[in-house]
C-alpha cells in the first residue's frame, strides 16, 4: 500500500517542554496504524499537529506525496483528515445534531436562499449515532445531558460526518464500556474495509493488538519502535512500551 | 411544564404587563401611544440585534450606543454640509460598520478582551462625536425624503415599524436558519470545538462585532430621520436599554442563550414598561431602577454565555 501520510522529524516545544523531538512516521493507505506510548509521550501533540490544531516548530508533513502545511484545523479537514480529539471538543450547550454537523452543516435551497436543512441533519445524525450507540434517538438533546461514552459517540459521529479519507482517533474508547468499546473497534474495522486510513491512539493494548496493521511506539517525544501488527499480543506490546527496545519478547 | 415556563415565562409576563397597562394606564391603548411604543421598540431593537450578534459569539460590545451617536452625528454633519442625503446615510452606516470592524480587529487580532476594547472604542466614538459637532446639535434643513424614513406613514402605520419588522425577519433567518448563524453560535458556545470543526472563529467574532456596529449605523439613520436632528450622546440612553433587552431576551425561547426573537420581545417589554411607568405617573428615576433590576435578574437566571464573555479577561 502507498504511504498516505508521512511525517519527517516533527519537533514541538511547549515553552520549555519538549513534547516532540523528531517524530517520523509513515502511515500506509488503507491501514490501521496504532500509536502507543506512556502518558506524556507526545501522542496527542503529534495528533494535534496532523489535525492542524497545533503547528510544528520543525519538520515536514507529506500527504499523498505532497508536502502540506496545516495552519488551521480547517486545512487538515480539507486535506481529508478528520480527527477525534482526546478531549472530544464538543459544545455541551448545543444539541447532538448541531455538534455532529458543526462546521459542515447541511443546507437546502429555499426561494434561492441556502438555509439549514435541520430535518435532514437530524435524520443523518441518527444514522451516525446508531453505528455507535443506538439507544440515543433524540438528536435535539443537548450534549451536556449525555454520559461520557455517549459524548464520545457524538465526537466520533462528527468525524465520520466529514467522510474523510483518513480518520484519527485519540483514545476513542477511554470512557467506554465493554460493549461500546467493541462497537468502536467494529467501526474502526469497517472504516478500513471501506478503504479508509485510520490512525488509532490507545492505551488498551488488547484493542491495539486486535485491530492494528502497524504500530509506532512513542517514547518521550520520539518514535522509538515501529512494528508490524498481526501476530503481536497485548503482552508483547506492553513489553515494548515498558522496555523501550525493539528486541523481540521471549 | 418547567420547560414551558423556562421557554415562555418572560414572554407571558410581558403579555401580563400589556394587559395590566391596558387596564390601569390611561391612554396606553390609544393608537398614538401604541405606535409611539412600537417606534421606540424599533430604535431599541435594531440596536440590540447588533449587540445580540456580538454576544452570540461570546463577545461584549459596550460601544454600540456611542457608535450610534457618532454615526448620527456623521449623517447630520454631512447633510448640513449639503451632501446628498443618501450619501450621508451611507457614510453614517459605514461609520457604524467600521467601528464594529475595528472592535473585531482589536478582539481577534490584537487579543484585547472585548469588555476592554469596546469600552475604549466607546470613549473614542464619544469624543469624535463631540469633535464633529463642537458640542452642539445639527438641526434644520433636512430633505423630506430622508425624514420620511423616520416619520413617514403608510396609512396610519409609521414606516419605521415596517422597516423594523423586515429587519427582524432578516436577522431572525440569518441567526437561526443559516450556516453563518450556527457558526456564530458554535464560536460563542465553545470556540475551540468550533475551530477544530473547521470554523473560522476569528472571522465569526469579527462578523458578530461588525454586525453590532452595523446595527448602530442603521439605527442612527432612523433616529436622525425621526428627530430631524443629530447630537452627540443622542443614543446614550440606548446603552443600558439595549443591554437589558438582550439579557431579558436570554430568559426566553432558547433559555440562557442570546437570541434575536428574545431580544425583540425583551425590547417590547422594556419600552412598554418605561411607557407605562410614565403614564402611571411614576417618578423618572424609577425607570433606571427597573432597568438595573432587569439586567441583574436576567443574568442571574440565565446568562452562561454572558458570564463567559464578561470573564474572558
Ligand atoms: N498545551 C500544552 N502546554 C504545555 N505543555 C503541554 C501542552 N500539551 C501537552 N504538553 C506536554 O507535552 C507532553 C506530551 O503531551 P501529550 O498530551 O502529547 O501526551 P500523550 O502521549 O497524549 O499523553 P496521554 O497518554 O496522557 O494522553 C507532556 O509532557 C505534556 O505535559
Ligand atoms: Mg493524549
What's a quick, concise take on this entry?
Chain A is built from 8 helices and 13 strands. Chain A has 250 residues and is α/β, with parallel strands linked by helices.
Question: What does this entry look like structurally?
Answer:
The complex is a heterodimer of chains A (250) and B (313). Chain A is of the alpha/beta class. Chain A has 2 domains: 1-80 and 166-188 and 196-250, 3-Layer(aba) Sandwich (Rossmann fold); 89-164, no CATH class. Chain A is 32% helix and 28% strand. Chain A is built from 8 helices and 13 strands. In chain A, the strands form 3 sheets. Chain A has a 6-stranded mixed beta sheet, with helices on both faces. In chain A, strands 1, 2, 3, 5 and 6 form a 5-stranded antiparallel beta sheet that branches. A two-stranded antiparallel sheet of chain A has the order 8-9. Chain A starts with a strand and ends in a 7-residue tail after the last helix. The model of chain B has no long low-confidence stretch (mean pLDDT 91). Chain B has one domain (2-311): ABC transporter involved in vitamin B12 uptake, BtuC (Orthogonal Bundle). A two-stranded antiparallel ribbon of chain B has the order 1-4. With 313 residues, chain B is mainly alpha-helical. In chain B, 50% of the residues are buried. Chain B has helices at residues 2-24, 31-56, 64-80, 85-108, 114-133, 144-151, 159-177, 179-189, 191-196, 201-227, 238-249, 260-279, 285-302, 304-311; strands at residues 138-139, 153-154, 157-158, 229-230. The interface between A and B is medium-sized, with 27 and 23 residues. The complex binds adenosine-5'-triphosphate and magnesium ion. Residues 14, 17, 19, 37, 39-45, 86 of chain A line the site of adenosine-5'-triphosphate.
Amino acid at each position: 500500500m502507498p504511504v498516505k501520510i508521512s511525517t519527517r522529524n516533527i519537533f514541538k516545544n511547549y515553552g520549555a517542554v519538549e513534547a516532540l523531538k523528531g517524530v517520523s512516521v509513515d502511515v500506509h493507505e488503507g491501514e490501521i496504524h496504532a500509536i502507543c506510548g506512556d502518558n506524556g509521550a507526545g501522542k496527542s501533540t503529534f495528533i494535534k499537529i496532523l489535525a492542524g490544531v497545533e503547528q510544528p516548530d520543525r519538520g515536514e508533513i507529506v500527504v499523498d506525496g505532497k508536502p502540506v502545511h496545516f495552519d488551521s484545523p480547517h486545512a487538515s479537514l480539507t486535506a481529508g483528515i478528520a480527527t477525534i480529539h482526546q478531549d472530544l471538543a464538543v459544545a455541551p450547550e448545543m444539541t447532538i445534531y448541531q455538534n455532529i454537523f458543526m462546521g459542515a452543516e447541511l443546507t437546502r435551497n429555499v426561494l434561492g436562499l441556502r438555509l439549514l436543512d435541520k430535518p435532514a441533519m437530524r435524520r443523518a445524525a441518527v444514522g451516525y449515532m446508531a453505528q455507535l450507540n443506538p439507544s440515543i434517538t433524540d438528536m435535539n438533546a443537548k450534549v451536556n445531558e449525555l454520559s461520557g461514552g455517549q459524548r464520545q459517540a457524538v465526537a466520533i459521529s462528527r468525524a465520520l460526518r466529514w467522510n474523510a479519507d483518513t480518520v484519527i482517533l485519540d483514545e476513542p474508547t477511554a470512557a467506554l464500556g465493554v460493549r461500546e468499546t467493541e462497537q468502536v473497534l467494529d467501526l474502526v474495522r469497517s472504516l478500513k474495509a471501506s478503504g479508509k486510513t485510520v490512525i488509532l491512539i490507545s492505551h488498551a493494548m488488547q484493542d491495539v493488538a486486535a485491530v492494528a496493521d502497524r504500530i509506532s511506539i512513542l517514547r518521550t517525544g520520539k518514535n522509538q519502535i515501529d512494528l508490524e501488527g498481526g501476530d503481536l499480543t497485548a503482552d508483547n506490546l506492553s513489553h515494548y512500551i515498558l522496555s523501550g527496545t525493539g528486541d523481540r519478547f521471549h | 411544564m418547567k420547560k414551558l415556563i423556562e421557554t415562555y415565562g418572560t414572554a407571558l409576563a410581558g403579555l401580563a404587563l400589556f394587559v395590566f397597562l391596558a387596564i390601569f394606564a390611561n391612554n396606553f391603548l390609544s393608537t398614538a401611544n401604541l405606535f409611539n411604543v412600537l417606534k421606540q421598540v424599533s430604535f431599541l431593537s435594531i440596536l440590540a440585534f447588533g449587540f445580540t450578534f456580538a454576544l452570540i459569539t461570546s463577545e461584549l460590545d459596550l460601544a454600540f450606543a456611542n457608535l450610534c451617536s457618532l454615526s448620527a452625528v456623521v449623517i447630520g454633519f454631512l447633510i448640513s454640509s449639503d451632501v446628498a442625503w443618501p450619501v450621508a446615510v451611507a457614510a453614517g452606516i459605514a461609520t457604524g460598520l467600521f467601528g464594529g470592524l475595528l472592535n473585531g480587529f482589536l478582539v481577534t487580532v490584537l487579543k484585547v478582551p472585548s469588555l476592554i476594547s469596546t469600552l475604549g472604542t466607546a470613549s473614542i466614538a464619544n469624543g469624535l462625536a463631540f469633535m464633529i459637532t463642537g458640542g452642539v446639535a445639527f438641526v434644520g434643513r433636512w430633505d423630506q425624503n430622508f425624514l420620511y424614513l423616520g416619520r413617514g406613514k403608510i396609512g396610519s402605520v409609521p414606516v419605521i415599524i415596517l422597516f423594523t419588522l423586515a429587519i427582524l425577519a432578516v436577522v431572525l433567518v440569518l441567526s437561526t436558519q443559516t450556516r453563518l448563524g450556527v457558526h456564530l453560535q458554535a464560536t460563542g458556545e465553545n470556540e475551540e470545538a468550533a475551530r477544530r470543526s473547521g470554523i473560522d472563529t476569528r472571522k465569526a467574532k469579527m462578523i458578530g462585532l461588525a454586525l453590532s456596529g452595523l446595527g448602530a449605523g442603521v439605527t442612527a439613520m432612523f433616529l436622525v430621520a425621526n428627530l430631524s436632528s443629530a447630537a452627540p450622546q443622542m443614543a446614550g440612553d440606548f446603552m443600558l436599554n439595549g443591554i437589558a433587552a438582550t439579557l431579558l431576551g436570554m430568559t426566553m425561547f432558547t433559555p440562557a442563550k442570546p437570541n434575536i426573537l428574545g431580544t425583540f420581545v425583551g425590547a417590547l417589554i422594556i419600552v412598554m414598561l418605561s411607557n407605562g411607568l410614565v403614564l402611571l405617573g411614576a417618578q423618572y428615576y424609577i425607570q433606571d431602577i427597573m432597568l438595573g433590576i432587569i439586567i441583574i435578574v436576567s443574568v442571574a437566571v440565565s446568562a452562561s454565555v454572558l458570564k463567559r464573555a464578561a470573564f474572558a479577561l
